[in-house]
Amino acid sequence: xxxxxxxxxxxxxxxxxxxxxxxxxxxxxxxxxxxxxxxxxxxxxxxxxxxxxxxxxxxxxxxxxxxxxxxxxxxxxxxxxxxxxxxxxxxxxxxxxxxxxxxxxxxxxxxxxxxxxxxxxxxxxxxxxxxxxxxxxxxxxxxxxxxxxxxxxxxxxxxxxxxxxxxxxxxxxxxxxxxxxxxxxxxxxxxxxxxxxxxxxxxxxxxxxxxxxxxxxxxxxxxxxxxxxxxxxxxxxxxxxxxxxxxxxxxxxxxxxxxxxxxxxxxxxxxxxxxxxxxxxxxxxxxxxxxxxxxxxxxxxxxxxxxxxxxxxxxxxxxxxxxxxxxxxxxxxxxxxxxxxxxxxxxxxxxxxxxxxxxxxxxxxxxxxxxxxxxxx
Length: 377
Fold this sequence. Notes:
Elements: E1 17-23, E2 34-40, H1 43-46, E3 58-64, E4 70-73, H2 79-82, E5 89-96, E6 103-112, E7 121-122, E8 133-135, H3 141-146, E9 159-179, E10 186-192, E11 197-205, E12 213-221, E13 226-232, E14 239-256, E15 266-285, E16 293-297, E17 301-303, E18 311-316, H4 318-324, E19 331-336, E20 342-348, E21 357-361, E22 374-376
Parallel strand pairs: 1-8, 9-22
Antiparallel strand pairs: 1-4, 2-3, 2-5, 5-6, 6-7, 9-14, 10-13, 10-20, 11-12, 11-15, 11-19, 14-15, 16-21, 17-20, 18-19, 21-22
């Protein structure tokens, strides 16, 4: 399987992922190590899995770590790989192969297929993410293949993820909008339409159910439209709301094959907690943040063409941890890109159409990418 994948040096397509791999015990470059990219199914396909089902993944790229530790993963012409693209995104696992257990990092990528369909590249206006990894007992492609046909040395290029169970649901923040009471006549509406993709953080463990840590992202698509309309400050009180989509997480375990790579029959200590689907929405009142990056408006305005904010602590996994009894007592990121599918629209009361107001972003200006929470002043 792996020898059939093209060497990235022979491909004209741009890298989808790049970075550096070092040996965890020495911090030196893991020169010669084998790195692969594994396409992960969309949330719609994951939602159909039953406990015990093998996740249908496909290895779509390979690379060898260079002497300085660097690697690049490129995808050549591959109709199979293109089938994993949903709504301009593809979810992948980056795998550093090992003679013990591989190192895995998950990432949701914004991608496009160039004219002619000769490969998969980063979407226009984006660049390949840099993913730096530490690995133990790293293995070259030669080592992996030479030890692939005995019970004592499993075929480590054949690993499988098996769906274990649902971990339940938890809120994932997608927006934060606030207004000061001095501008109580400005209201706002937040909309997240059906088929909108959100990027949600995942957790991985290499040491059983107690050793999870945040490790990358995965996309999940909303099956129904969520709309929060008419929020506004009053003449006597400020208003500040965080908006959430409810995300269901699933638990997956990595298995290996000791039978010539044909069937998973050896469980490992690696686990993955990742989004399966979106299952509702909610709203939570909170304090008004300090926002100083302001634009002035005299009429209604809608933000729908810029990238929304990544909330680094947008999903608290503690509720899942408490219900499932596993080590998920931390938060991961969440983001739902603003587009015609997700928007924040501000409007004025009919008696104040001539008055001006400001919309301010905590991180950047409201009409730019990643503005942070938005505040009406």
